[in-house]
Amino acid sequence: MTVIPNLGDIVAVNAHPYFKEIYNVRIAGEPTNVLPLMVVVEIHEEVKTMYHEQTGELLTEKGKGKCKCVWFSLKTNSFSESWFHFDSIKIIKSRSADHLASSNLTEDSEEFREIRKKWKNKSVNFITSRLELKKVKETKAFEKDVDKLSSYSSLLSFVCPPLEVIEVK
């Protein structure tokens, strides 16, 4: 069954070693092949099933869809984004719905001015940073006297540096 993510959910492609609420996984292998944790920023869900008029080929299926995800990459030192089909990703951590409640605030309202005052020029971390910092790379070495020696190091390929809120709109 395909799970439809919500805005703000932290997701990963199905091949990622993390699972929902299980982050203490040691990662072995080539670190360049480890995939990032991503944040869902846009969702497109099909509302009806459609077929091609002439061929009868299935074009879209109700409930299927895709979402745009964003992640930070140290390789490019920037944020990247891409679209993923629902069945190609898994939810790692869900965001609460009320955390992202929409509001019709205007820049003249008192509530908006309070929000601007609270967040403007504040240092923040990207939502995936805490989980990305938990990634541990395991390297195994074999020596004559000891069967296996393992060394552990942080895997920081997708950890975003601290950010600063420069404007609230």
Profile the largest sheet: 5 strands, antiparallel
Number of strands: 12
How many domains, as an integer?
Answer: 1
State the end-to-end CA separation: 38 Å
Helix content: under 10%
Shape verdict: flat
Supply the number of helical segments.
2
Structural class computed from helices and strand pairing: mainly beta
- Low-confidence stretches are none
- Strands ordered across the widest β-sheet: 7-6-3-1-8
On the 0 to 100 scale, the average pLDDT is: 82
Question: How would you explain this protein's 3D organization?
Answer:
- This protein is mainly beta and 169 residues long.
- It contains two helices and twelve strands, in the order ββββββββαβαβββ.
- The strands form four sheets. The chain has a five-stranded antiparallel sheet, with no helix packed on it.
- A hairpin with a 6-residue loop joins β4 and β5 (58-60).
- It is flat and about 70 Å long.
- The two termini are 38 Å apart.
